[in-house]
Amino acid sequence: MVIIEGKGIGGSMVQGKLYRLQKTVDKAYTPLAPKEEERRFREACNLLDEELASLYERALTTAGEEAAEIFSIHRMMLQEGDLADAVSERIAAGESAISAITTVGEGLSIGFASMDNAYMQARAADIQSLIERLEGLLRGEGGQLPTFTEPVILAAEDLTPAQTVALDKDKILGFVTEGGSIHSHTAILAKTLHIPAVVNTGSLPADVDGKNCVLDGDTGRVYLEPSEAMVRICKEAQAENRRRQAELRSFTDKCYVDQDGIPVKVLANAGSMADVEAAISAGAEGIGLFRSEFLFMQYDRCPTEEEQYGIYCDVLRRMNGKEVIVRLLDAGADKTLPWLPSTHEANPALGLRAIRLCLRHPEILRGQIRALYRASAHGNISAMIPLVTGMEEVHAVRTLASELCRELDAQTISHNPKMPIGIMVETPSAAILSDKLAKISDFFSIGSNDLLQYTMAADRENPEVSYLTEQLPESVCRLIEMTARAAKDVGIPVSICGELGGDTRVTHKLLSMGIRKFSVSAGRILQLKEAISKETGLIKEKMY
Ligand code: PEP
Ligand code: MG
Fold this sequence. Notes:
Elements: E1 2-5, E2 7-8, E3 13-20, H1 34-63, H2 65-79, H3 81-92, H4 97-113, H5 118-138, E4 152-156, H6 161-165, E5 172-177, H7 185-192, E6 197-199, E7 212-216, E8 221-224, H8 228-248, E9 256-258, E10 263-270, H9 273-281, E11 286-291, H10 292-297, H11 305-319, E12 323-327, H12 354-360, H13 362-376, E13 381-385, H14 391-410, E14 421-425, H15 428-432, H16 434-437, E15 444-446, H17 448-455, H18 474-490, E16 494-496, H19 507-512, E17 517-521, H20 525-533, E18 539-541
Parallel strand pairs: 3-4, 4-5, 5-6, 10-11, 10-17, 11-12, 12-13, 13-14, 14-15, 15-16
Antiparallel strand pairs: 1-8, 2-6, 3-7, 7-8, 9-10, 9-18
Helix pairs in contact: 1-2, 1-5, 3-4, 4-5, 9-11, 11-13, 13-14
The structure holds phosphoenolpyruvate (PEP) and magnesium ion.
Phosphoenolpyruvate (PEP) is lined by residues 188, 289, 291, 330, 426, 447-450, 497-498.
Protein backbone atom coordinates (compact mmCIF):
# COMPACT_ATOMS: atom_id res chain seq x y z
CA MET A 1 0.00 0.00 0.00
CA VAL A 2 1.34 3.44 -0.95
CA ILE A 3 0.04 6.52 0.88
CA ILE A 4 -0.17 9.76 -1.08
CA GLU A 5 -0.72 12.99 0.82
CA GLY A 6 -2.66 15.93 -0.54
CA LYS A 7 -5.27 18.37 0.72
CA GLY A 8 -8.70 17.02 1.46
CA ILE A 9 -11.70 19.05 0.42
CA GLY A 10 -14.17 16.93 2.33
CA GLY A 11 -16.57 14.19 1.50
CA SER A 12 -15.45 11.24 3.62
CA MET A 13 -13.87 8.01 2.28
CA VAL A 14 -14.49 6.13 -0.94
CA GLN A 15 -12.95 3.06 -2.50
CA GLY A 16 -12.67 2.26 -6.20
CA LYS A 17 -10.48 1.96 -9.29
CA LEU A 18 -8.46 4.96 -10.42
CA TYR A 19 -8.89 6.33 -13.91
CA ARG A 20 -5.96 8.48 -15.03
CA LEU A 21 -6.93 11.38 -17.26
CA GLN A 22 -4.45 12.15 -20.02
CA LYS A 23 -1.68 14.23 -18.53
CA THR A 24 -0.72 17.67 -19.78
CA VAL A 25 2.62 16.89 -21.36
CA ASP A 26 3.91 20.15 -22.70
CA LYS A 27 2.24 23.28 -21.40
CA ALA A 28 5.08 25.47 -22.63
CA TYR A 29 4.93 23.88 -26.13
CA THR A 30 8.21 23.26 -27.89
CA PRO A 31 7.95 23.65 -31.68
CA LEU A 32 9.48 20.89 -33.79
CA ALA A 33 10.40 20.62 -37.49
CA PRO A 34 7.57 21.47 -39.96
CA LYS A 35 6.91 17.79 -40.77
CA GLU A 36 6.46 16.97 -37.06
CA GLU A 37 4.36 20.07 -36.50
CA GLU A 38 2.08 19.02 -39.37
CA ARG A 39 1.73 15.53 -37.81
CA ARG A 40 0.93 17.05 -34.41
CA PHE A 41 -1.68 19.31 -35.99
CA ARG A 42 -3.38 16.46 -37.91
CA GLU A 43 -3.41 14.32 -34.75
CA ALA A 44 -5.04 17.14 -32.79
CA CYS A 45 -7.67 17.53 -35.56
CA ASN A 46 -8.47 13.80 -35.41
CA LEU A 47 -8.74 13.84 -31.61
CA LEU A 48 -10.99 16.88 -31.72
CA ASP A 49 -13.16 15.28 -34.39
CA GLU A 50 -13.67 12.20 -32.16
CA GLU A 51 -14.34 14.41 -29.16
CA LEU A 52 -16.97 16.42 -31.06
CA ALA A 53 -18.65 13.25 -32.31
CA SER A 54 -19.02 11.93 -28.76
CA LEU A 55 -20.15 15.33 -27.45
CA TYR A 56 -22.80 15.34 -30.18
CA GLU A 57 -24.09 11.91 -29.07
CA ARG A 58 -24.08 12.93 -25.41
CA ALA A 59 -25.85 16.24 -26.06
CA LEU A 60 -28.41 14.47 -28.24
CA THR A 61 -29.50 12.23 -25.38
CA THR A 62 -29.22 14.76 -22.56
CA ALA A 63 -30.25 18.03 -24.24
CA GLY A 64 -31.94 17.24 -27.56
CA GLU A 65 -31.20 17.74 -31.23
CA GLU A 66 -31.12 21.53 -31.28
CA ALA A 67 -28.46 21.71 -28.56
CA ALA A 68 -26.44 18.89 -30.14
CA GLU A 69 -26.41 20.65 -33.52
CA ILE A 70 -23.58 22.93 -32.44
CA PHE A 71 -21.18 19.98 -32.28
CA SER A 72 -21.98 18.90 -35.81
CA ILE A 73 -21.42 22.51 -36.97
CA HIS A 74 -18.02 22.43 -35.26
CA ARG A 75 -17.18 19.09 -36.91
CA MET A 76 -18.13 20.51 -40.29
CA MET A 77 -15.91 23.54 -39.78
CA LEU A 78 -13.05 21.30 -38.78
CA GLN A 79 -13.49 18.91 -41.67
CA GLU A 80 -13.98 21.55 -44.35
CA GLY A 81 -10.66 22.45 -45.92
CA ASP A 82 -10.32 26.23 -45.26
CA LEU A 83 -9.04 26.15 -41.71
CA ALA A 84 -6.82 23.07 -42.03
CA ASP A 85 -5.32 24.09 -45.41
CA ALA A 86 -4.41 27.56 -44.22
CA VAL A 87 -2.80 26.15 -41.06
CA SER A 88 -0.81 23.54 -43.01
CA GLU A 89 0.43 26.25 -45.37
CA ARG A 90 1.80 28.31 -42.49
CA ILE A 91 3.36 25.23 -40.86
CA ALA A 92 5.11 24.40 -44.13
CA ALA A 93 6.47 27.96 -44.16
CA GLY A 94 8.11 27.33 -40.75
CA GLU A 95 5.52 28.41 -38.17
CA SER A 96 4.74 26.21 -35.18
CA ALA A 97 1.36 24.45 -35.23
CA ILE A 98 0.13 26.55 -32.27
CA SER A 99 1.13 29.84 -33.79
CA ALA A 100 -0.33 28.86 -37.20
CA ILE A 101 -3.65 27.86 -35.61
CA THR A 102 -3.86 31.08 -33.62
CA THR A 103 -3.12 33.29 -36.62
CA VAL A 104 -5.49 31.48 -38.98
CA GLY A 105 -8.19 31.25 -36.31
CA GLU A 106 -7.99 34.95 -35.51
CA GLY A 107 -8.22 35.82 -39.21
CA LEU A 108 -11.26 33.62 -39.74
CA SER A 109 -13.06 34.77 -36.64
CA ILE A 110 -12.48 38.46 -37.46
CA GLY A 111 -13.84 37.68 -40.95
CA PHE A 112 -16.98 36.08 -39.52
CA ALA A 113 -17.47 38.77 -36.86
CA SER A 114 -17.45 41.53 -39.49
CA MET A 115 -20.19 39.94 -41.62
CA ASP A 116 -23.64 41.54 -41.78
CA ASN A 117 -25.56 38.39 -41.14
CA ALA A 118 -26.04 37.60 -37.40
CA TYR A 119 -25.85 33.86 -38.04
CA MET A 120 -22.46 34.20 -39.72
CA GLN A 121 -21.27 36.57 -36.97
CA ALA A 122 -22.05 33.91 -34.39
CA ARG A 123 -19.69 31.55 -36.23
CA ALA A 124 -16.78 33.69 -34.96
CA ALA A 125 -17.32 32.16 -31.50
CA ASP A 126 -17.42 28.68 -33.04
CA ILE A 127 -14.06 29.23 -34.70
CA GLN A 128 -12.69 30.60 -31.45
CA SER A 129 -13.77 27.55 -29.49
CA LEU A 130 -12.32 25.17 -32.10
CA ILE A 131 -9.04 27.04 -32.03
CA GLU A 132 -8.85 27.01 -28.24
CA ARG A 133 -9.53 23.30 -28.09
CA LEU A 134 -7.01 22.52 -30.84
CA GLU A 135 -4.42 24.53 -28.94
CA GLY A 136 -5.29 22.64 -25.76
CA LEU A 137 -4.93 19.30 -27.52
CA LEU A 138 -1.59 20.34 -28.98
CA ARG A 139 -0.42 21.18 -25.48
CA GLY A 140 -1.58 17.77 -24.33
CA GLU A 141 -4.55 18.94 -22.28
CA GLY A 142 -7.17 16.30 -21.53
CA GLY A 143 -10.20 18.55 -22.04
CA GLN A 144 -13.60 16.90 -22.07
CA LEU A 145 -14.00 13.84 -19.91
CA PRO A 146 -14.69 10.41 -21.34
CA THR A 147 -17.99 8.70 -20.55
CA PHE A 148 -17.58 6.03 -17.92
CA THR A 149 -19.51 2.80 -17.79
CA GLU A 150 -18.23 1.78 -14.33
CA PRO A 151 -17.86 4.09 -11.32
CA VAL A 152 -14.24 5.30 -10.98
CA ILE A 153 -12.06 7.63 -8.95
CA LEU A 154 -10.59 10.17 -11.34
CA ALA A 155 -6.89 10.99 -11.17
CA ALA A 156 -5.85 14.10 -13.06
CA GLU A 157 -3.21 16.74 -13.22
CA ASP A 158 -5.99 19.21 -12.50
CA LEU A 159 -9.64 19.66 -13.41
CA THR A 160 -11.20 22.83 -14.72
CA PRO A 161 -14.48 24.07 -13.23
CA ALA A 162 -16.12 23.25 -16.60
CA GLN A 163 -14.93 19.65 -16.36
CA THR A 164 -16.02 19.38 -12.73
CA VAL A 165 -19.48 20.73 -13.44
CA ALA A 166 -19.87 18.07 -16.15
CA LEU A 167 -18.91 15.17 -13.86
CA ASP A 168 -21.48 12.43 -13.81
CA LYS A 169 -21.98 11.91 -10.08
CA ASP A 170 -23.20 8.35 -10.57
CA LYS A 171 -19.95 7.42 -12.27
CA ILE A 172 -17.38 9.49 -10.38
CA LEU A 173 -16.84 8.24 -6.82
CA GLY A 174 -14.24 10.90 -6.13
CA PHE A 175 -11.22 12.58 -7.64
CA VAL A 176 -7.61 13.26 -6.89
CA THR A 177 -5.59 15.99 -8.59
CA GLU A 178 -1.87 16.62 -8.59
CA GLY A 179 -2.36 20.39 -8.59
CA GLY A 180 -5.27 22.54 -7.49
CA SER A 181 -6.09 24.19 -4.21
CA ILE A 182 -8.79 23.92 -1.56
CA HIS A 183 -10.02 27.44 -2.42
CA SER A 184 -10.42 26.85 -6.16
CA HIS A 185 -13.78 26.79 -7.92
CA THR A 186 -13.12 23.14 -8.74
CA ALA A 187 -12.92 22.41 -4.99
CA ILE A 188 -16.08 24.41 -4.31
CA LEU A 189 -17.91 22.51 -7.04
CA ALA A 190 -16.75 19.17 -5.68
CA LYS A 191 -18.12 20.12 -2.28
CA THR A 192 -21.41 21.23 -3.77
CA LEU A 193 -21.69 18.04 -5.78
CA HIS A 194 -20.72 15.99 -2.67
CA ILE A 195 -17.82 14.42 -4.51
CA PRO A 196 -15.04 13.35 -2.14
CA ALA A 197 -11.80 14.83 -3.40
CA VAL A 198 -8.13 15.28 -2.64
CA VAL A 199 -6.14 17.99 -4.40
CA ASN A 200 -2.54 19.08 -4.58
CA THR A 201 -0.84 15.70 -4.16
CA GLY A 202 2.10 16.60 -6.39
CA SER A 203 3.10 14.09 -9.10
CA LEU A 204 1.16 10.84 -8.86
CA PRO A 205 2.99 7.60 -9.73
CA ALA A 206 2.98 7.01 -13.50
CA ASP A 207 1.16 3.68 -13.22
CA VAL A 208 -1.89 4.64 -11.12
CA ASP A 209 -4.34 3.97 -13.93
CA GLY A 210 -6.62 1.03 -13.07
CA LYS A 211 -5.24 0.63 -9.54
CA ASN A 212 -7.51 0.09 -6.58
CA CYS A 213 -7.46 2.92 -4.06
CA VAL A 214 -9.11 4.39 -0.99
CA LEU A 215 -9.51 8.15 -1.07
CA ASP A 216 -10.10 10.08 2.13
CA GLY A 217 -11.55 13.50 1.35
CA ASP A 218 -11.27 14.57 5.00
CA THR A 219 -7.62 13.82 5.72
CA GLY A 220 -6.43 14.41 2.15
CA ARG A 221 -4.88 10.93 1.89
CA VAL A 222 -5.02 8.51 -1.02
CA TYR A 223 -4.12 4.86 -0.29
CA LEU A 224 -2.96 3.08 -3.45
CA GLU A 225 -3.56 -0.66 -3.49
CA PRO A 226 -4.96 -0.45 0.06
CA SER A 227 -4.42 -3.18 2.60
CA GLU A 228 -7.41 -5.20 3.77
CA ALA A 229 -7.28 -3.28 7.04
CA MET A 230 -7.56 0.01 5.14
CA VAL A 231 -10.49 -1.24 3.08
CA ARG A 232 -12.17 -2.21 6.36
CA ILE A 233 -11.45 1.25 7.82
CA CYS A 234 -12.99 2.78 4.70
CA LYS A 235 -16.16 0.70 5.09
CA GLU A 236 -16.37 1.61 8.80
CA ALA A 237 -15.87 5.29 7.96
CA GLN A 238 -18.67 5.10 5.40
CA ALA A 239 -20.94 3.53 8.03
CA GLU A 240 -19.95 6.23 10.56
CA ASN A 241 -20.59 8.86 7.92
CA ARG A 242 -24.09 7.52 7.33
CA ARG A 243 -24.72 7.55 11.11
CA ARG A 244 -23.47 11.15 11.38
CA GLN A 245 -25.61 12.22 8.42
CA ALA A 246 -28.65 10.71 10.13
CA GLU A 247 -27.78 12.60 13.34
CA LEU A 248 -27.39 15.86 11.44
CA ARG A 249 -30.70 15.38 9.66
CA SER A 250 -32.44 16.33 12.92
CA PHE A 251 -31.30 19.92 12.19
CA THR A 252 -33.01 20.08 8.80
CA ASP A 253 -36.09 21.96 9.97
CA LYS A 254 -34.45 23.92 12.78
CA CYS A 255 -34.36 27.73 12.60
CA TYR A 256 -32.58 30.09 14.98
CA VAL A 257 -32.86 33.64 16.29
CA ASP A 258 -30.36 35.66 18.29
CA GLN A 259 -31.02 37.02 21.81
CA ASP A 260 -32.70 40.09 20.26
CA GLY A 261 -35.04 37.90 18.22
CA ILE A 262 -33.22 38.59 14.94
CA PRO A 263 -33.29 35.50 12.68
CA VAL A 264 -29.99 33.72 12.10
CA LYS A 265 -30.49 32.28 8.64
CA VAL A 266 -28.73 29.48 6.83
CA LEU A 267 -29.16 29.61 3.07
CA ALA A 268 -27.48 27.65 0.30
CA ASN A 269 -25.07 28.36 -2.51
CA ALA A 270 -26.12 26.78 -5.79
CA GLY A 271 -25.15 26.70 -9.44
CA SER A 272 -27.69 24.31 -10.91
CA MET A 273 -31.14 22.82 -10.33
CA ALA A 274 -29.45 19.78 -8.77
CA ASP A 275 -27.85 22.07 -6.18
CA VAL A 276 -31.23 23.68 -5.54
CA GLU A 277 -32.71 20.22 -4.84
CA ALA A 278 -29.81 19.44 -2.50
CA ALA A 279 -30.40 22.78 -0.75
CA ILE A 280 -34.08 21.99 -0.23
CA SER A 281 -33.29 18.54 1.20
CA ALA A 282 -30.84 20.09 3.64
CA GLY A 283 -33.42 22.62 4.88
CA ALA A 284 -31.91 25.75 3.29
CA GLU A 285 -33.83 28.93 4.16
CA GLY A 286 -33.23 30.28 0.66
CA ILE A 287 -30.55 30.48 -2.01
CA GLY A 288 -28.07 33.11 -0.86
CA LEU A 289 -25.82 32.76 -3.90
CA PHE A 290 -26.88 31.35 -7.25
CA ARG A 291 -23.63 31.21 -9.24
CA SER A 292 -25.16 31.95 -12.63
CA GLU A 293 -21.84 31.40 -14.43
CA PHE A 294 -22.12 27.64 -13.80
CA LEU A 295 -25.43 27.77 -15.60
CA PHE A 296 -23.89 29.78 -18.45
CA MET A 297 -21.04 27.25 -18.66
CA GLN A 298 -23.43 24.50 -19.60
CA TYR A 299 -24.28 26.22 -22.88
CA ASP A 300 -22.16 26.50 -25.99
CA ARG A 301 -23.55 29.99 -26.58
CA CYS A 302 -24.97 32.70 -24.35
CA PRO A 303 -28.26 31.42 -22.89
CA THR A 304 -31.13 33.56 -24.16
CA GLU A 305 -33.22 35.83 -21.95
CA GLU A 306 -36.09 33.36 -22.35
CA GLU A 307 -33.96 30.39 -21.29
CA GLN A 308 -32.63 32.24 -18.26
CA TYR A 309 -36.10 33.47 -17.32
CA GLY A 310 -37.34 29.85 -17.41
CA ILE A 311 -34.53 28.66 -15.14
CA TYR A 312 -34.82 31.52 -12.63
CA CYS A 313 -38.58 30.88 -12.45
CA ASP A 314 -37.90 27.16 -11.87
CA VAL A 315 -35.57 28.00 -8.98
CA LEU A 316 -38.17 30.36 -7.47
CA ARG A 317 -40.89 27.75 -7.85
CA ARG A 318 -38.79 25.09 -6.14
CA MET A 319 -37.82 27.48 -3.34
CA ASN A 320 -41.50 28.14 -2.78
CA GLY A 321 -41.48 31.76 -1.61
CA LYS A 322 -38.04 31.68 -0.03
CA GLU A 323 -35.44 34.22 -1.04
CA VAL A 324 -33.22 33.59 -4.10
CA ILE A 325 -30.15 35.75 -4.79
CA VAL A 326 -28.82 35.38 -8.31
CA ARG A 327 -25.32 36.65 -8.88
CA LEU A 328 -24.79 38.37 -12.20
CA LEU A 329 -22.43 36.47 -14.46
CA ASP A 330 -19.12 36.06 -12.62
CA ALA A 331 -17.06 34.70 -15.50
CA GLY A 332 -13.41 35.24 -16.32
CA ALA A 333 -10.22 34.14 -14.55
CA ASP A 334 -10.58 30.36 -14.05
CA LYS A 335 -14.28 30.39 -15.03
CA THR A 336 -14.00 30.77 -18.78
CA LEU A 337 -16.98 30.43 -21.07
CA PRO A 338 -16.29 28.42 -24.22
CA TRP A 339 -18.44 30.73 -26.30
CA LEU A 340 -17.05 34.03 -25.04
CA PRO A 341 -13.74 34.79 -26.77
CA SER A 342 -11.19 35.99 -24.25
CA THR A 343 -7.85 37.65 -24.70
CA HIS A 344 -4.76 36.36 -22.96
CA GLU A 345 -4.19 38.03 -19.59
CA ALA A 346 -1.02 37.67 -17.55
CA ASN A 347 -2.96 37.89 -14.27
CA PRO A 348 -6.54 36.86 -15.03
CA ALA A 349 -7.70 36.99 -11.39
CA LEU A 350 -6.80 40.69 -11.50
CA GLY A 351 -8.14 41.12 -14.99
CA LEU A 352 -11.30 41.29 -16.99
CA ARG A 353 -13.59 39.15 -14.85
CA ALA A 354 -17.00 39.36 -13.16
CA ILE A 355 -18.73 42.75 -13.38
CA ARG A 356 -15.85 44.16 -15.44
CA LEU A 357 -16.46 41.51 -18.10
CA CYS A 358 -20.24 42.04 -17.94
CA LEU A 359 -19.85 45.77 -18.46
CA ARG A 360 -17.60 45.02 -21.45
CA HIS A 361 -20.43 42.88 -22.89
CA PRO A 362 -23.56 44.90 -22.08
CA GLU A 363 -25.70 42.66 -24.31
CA ILE A 364 -25.08 39.74 -21.92
CA LEU A 365 -25.85 41.88 -18.89
CA ARG A 366 -29.04 43.24 -20.48
CA GLY A 367 -30.36 39.73 -21.19
CA GLN A 368 -29.59 38.57 -17.67
CA ILE A 369 -31.06 41.59 -15.89
CA ARG A 370 -34.21 41.50 -18.04
CA ALA A 371 -34.62 37.78 -17.28
CA LEU A 372 -34.23 38.51 -13.56
CA TYR A 373 -36.74 41.36 -13.61
CA ARG A 374 -39.25 39.17 -15.44
CA ALA A 375 -38.69 36.39 -12.88
CA SER A 376 -39.14 38.94 -10.08
CA ALA A 377 -42.85 39.05 -10.94
CA HIS A 378 -43.08 35.46 -9.67
CA GLY A 379 -41.12 35.46 -6.41
CA ASN A 380 -38.53 36.79 -4.04
CA ILE A 381 -35.51 37.19 -6.33
CA SER A 382 -32.58 39.60 -6.11
CA ALA A 383 -29.62 40.43 -8.33
CA MET A 384 -26.10 40.56 -6.94
CA ILE A 385 -23.10 42.28 -8.53
CA PRO A 386 -19.80 40.34 -8.33
CA LEU A 387 -16.36 41.81 -7.69
CA VAL A 388 -17.41 45.36 -6.97
CA THR A 389 -14.47 47.66 -6.30
CA GLY A 390 -16.19 51.04 -6.22
CA MET A 391 -19.30 53.12 -6.68
CA GLU A 392 -19.03 53.33 -10.49
CA GLU A 393 -19.78 49.66 -11.10
CA VAL A 394 -22.88 49.82 -8.91
CA HIS A 395 -24.06 53.02 -10.60
CA ALA A 396 -23.52 51.46 -14.04
CA VAL A 397 -25.60 48.39 -13.19
CA ARG A 398 -28.31 50.44 -11.50
CA THR A 399 -28.55 52.80 -14.48
CA LEU A 400 -28.90 49.87 -16.86
CA ALA A 401 -31.44 48.22 -14.53
CA SER A 402 -33.59 51.40 -14.48
CA GLU A 403 -33.44 51.61 -18.26
CA LEU A 404 -34.51 47.97 -18.56
CA CYS A 405 -37.37 48.54 -16.12
CA ARG A 406 -38.64 51.35 -18.34
CA GLU A 407 -38.29 49.09 -21.38
CA LEU A 408 -40.28 46.31 -19.67
CA ASP A 409 -42.93 48.85 -18.61
CA ALA A 410 -43.26 50.07 -22.19
CA GLN A 411 -43.64 46.47 -23.34
CA THR A 412 -46.19 45.84 -20.54
CA ILE A 413 -44.13 42.88 -19.32
CA SER A 414 -44.72 42.25 -15.62
CA HIS A 415 -41.79 42.67 -13.25
CA ASN A 416 -40.98 44.02 -9.80
CA PRO A 417 -39.25 47.40 -10.30
CA LYS A 418 -38.12 47.17 -6.65
CA MET A 419 -36.19 43.93 -7.18
CA PRO A 420 -33.27 44.30 -4.73
CA ILE A 421 -29.85 44.84 -6.27
CA GLY A 422 -27.03 44.06 -3.88
CA ILE A 423 -23.30 43.60 -4.10
CA MET A 424 -20.63 41.08 -3.27
CA VAL A 425 -18.09 42.51 -0.88
CA GLU A 426 -15.12 40.45 -1.98
CA THR A 427 -12.41 43.00 -2.63
CA PRO A 428 -10.59 45.01 0.05
CA SER A 429 -11.65 48.11 -1.87
CA ALA A 430 -15.35 47.30 -1.48
CA ALA A 431 -14.92 46.54 2.22
CA ILE A 432 -13.06 49.82 2.80
CA LEU A 433 -15.75 51.73 0.89
CA SER A 434 -18.58 49.73 2.50
CA ASP A 435 -20.02 52.81 4.28
CA LYS A 436 -20.51 54.53 0.90
CA LEU A 437 -21.52 51.38 -0.97
CA ALA A 438 -24.15 50.59 1.67
CA LYS A 439 -26.03 53.75 0.62
CA ILE A 440 -26.45 52.56 -2.97
CA SER A 441 -26.83 48.81 -2.41
CA ASP A 442 -29.87 46.88 -1.22
CA PHE A 443 -27.73 44.27 0.53
CA PHE A 444 -24.19 43.04 1.02
CA SER A 445 -22.88 39.53 0.69
CA ILE A 446 -19.34 38.92 1.82
CA GLY A 447 -17.41 36.76 -0.64
CA SER A 448 -14.71 35.52 1.69
CA ASN A 449 -13.01 33.37 -0.97
CA ASP A 450 -11.98 36.34 -3.05
CA LEU A 451 -11.71 38.67 -0.07
CA LEU A 452 -9.06 36.34 1.37
CA GLN A 453 -7.31 36.06 -1.99
CA TYR A 454 -7.14 39.78 -2.65
CA THR A 455 -6.43 40.89 0.92
CA MET A 456 -3.67 38.36 1.51
CA ALA A 457 -2.33 38.66 -2.07
CA ALA A 458 -2.58 34.86 -2.20
CA ASP A 459 -3.86 33.33 -5.44
CA ARG A 460 -6.71 31.03 -4.39
CA GLU A 461 -5.62 28.54 -7.06
CA ASN A 462 -2.03 28.35 -5.84
CA PRO A 463 -1.44 25.70 -3.18
CA GLU A 464 1.98 27.17 -2.35
CA VAL A 465 0.35 30.16 -0.68
CA SER A 466 -2.83 28.58 0.66
CA TYR A 467 -1.31 28.51 4.16
CA LEU A 468 -1.88 32.29 4.27
CA THR A 469 -5.63 31.87 4.09
CA GLU A 470 -6.24 28.63 5.95
CA GLN A 471 -6.90 30.46 9.23
CA LEU A 472 -9.00 33.61 9.32
CA PRO A 473 -6.37 36.41 9.13
CA GLU A 474 -6.82 39.46 11.33
CA SER A 475 -6.84 41.80 8.33
CA VAL A 476 -9.76 39.94 6.73
CA CYS A 477 -11.52 39.79 10.08
CA ARG A 478 -11.34 43.58 10.31
CA LEU A 479 -12.69 43.99 6.77
CA ILE A 480 -15.62 41.69 7.57
CA GLU A 481 -16.34 43.61 10.77
CA MET A 482 -16.16 46.91 8.91
CA THR A 483 -18.57 45.65 6.25
CA ALA A 484 -21.04 44.24 8.80
CA ARG A 485 -21.00 47.55 10.71
CA ALA A 486 -21.53 49.63 7.54
CA ALA A 487 -24.52 47.47 6.61
CA LYS A 488 -25.99 47.73 10.11
CA ASP A 489 -25.57 51.52 10.17
CA VAL A 490 -27.84 51.95 7.15
CA GLY A 491 -30.04 48.97 7.91
CA ILE A 492 -29.32 46.75 4.91
CA PRO A 493 -28.90 42.95 5.23
CA VAL A 494 -25.41 41.49 5.21
CA SER A 495 -24.59 37.85 4.65
CA ILE A 496 -21.49 35.76 4.06
CA CYS A 497 -21.45 33.48 1.03
CA GLY A 498 -17.80 32.43 0.77
CA GLU A 499 -16.55 29.09 2.09
CA LEU A 500 -15.62 30.70 5.39
CA GLY A 501 -19.32 30.89 6.24
CA GLY A 502 -19.49 27.09 6.29
CA ASP A 503 -16.33 26.69 8.38
CA THR A 504 -17.69 25.83 11.81
CA ARG A 505 -14.37 26.77 13.45
CA VAL A 506 -15.25 30.43 12.86
CA THR A 507 -19.03 30.37 13.35
CA HIS A 508 -18.71 31.92 16.82
CA LYS A 509 -16.46 34.67 15.51
CA LEU A 510 -18.72 35.51 12.58
CA LEU A 511 -21.78 35.65 14.85
CA SER A 512 -19.88 37.93 17.25
CA MET A 513 -19.03 40.22 14.33
CA GLY A 514 -22.73 40.64 13.62
CA ILE A 515 -23.22 38.17 10.78
CA ARG A 516 -26.73 36.74 10.96
CA LYS A 517 -27.04 35.26 7.50
CA PHE A 518 -24.90 32.48 6.08
CA SER A 519 -25.01 31.05 2.59
CA VAL A 520 -23.03 27.83 2.24
CA SER A 521 -22.72 24.70 0.08
CA ALA A 522 -25.71 22.43 0.63
CA GLY A 523 -23.38 19.83 2.13
CA ARG A 524 -22.43 22.26 4.92
CA ILE A 525 -25.89 23.41 5.96
CA LEU A 526 -26.59 20.84 8.64
CA GLN A 527 -23.16 21.06 10.29
CA LEU A 528 -23.52 24.82 10.33
CA LYS A 529 -26.98 24.66 11.90
CA GLU A 530 -25.56 22.31 14.52
CA ALA A 531 -22.71 24.76 15.23
CA ILE A 532 -25.17 27.66 15.50
CA SER A 533 -27.34 25.65 17.91
CA LYS A 534 -24.35 25.31 20.23
CA GLU A 535 -23.94 29.09 20.55
CA THR A 536 -26.40 29.16 23.41
CA GLY A 537 -25.08 32.46 24.81
CA LEU A 538 -25.96 34.25 21.56
CA ILE A 539 -28.55 32.13 19.83
CA LYS A 540 -31.87 30.42 20.62
CA GLU A 541 -33.85 27.90 18.67
CA LYS A 542 -36.82 29.59 17.05
CA MET A 543 -40.09 28.20 18.39
CA TYR A 544 -43.21 28.32 16.28
C1 PEP B 1 -16.35 34.41 -2.97
O1 PEP B 1 -15.45 34.96 -3.61
O2 PEP B 1 -16.31 34.25 -1.73
C2 PEP B 1 -17.53 33.89 -3.65
C3 PEP B 1 -18.57 33.42 -3.00
O3 PEP B 1 -17.49 33.87 -5.00
P1 PEP B 1 -16.70 32.75 -5.85
O4 PEP B 1 -16.15 31.74 -4.90
O5 PEP B 1 -17.69 32.16 -6.79
O6 PEP B 1 -15.65 33.57 -6.51
MG1 MG C 1 -15.83 35.57 -5.67
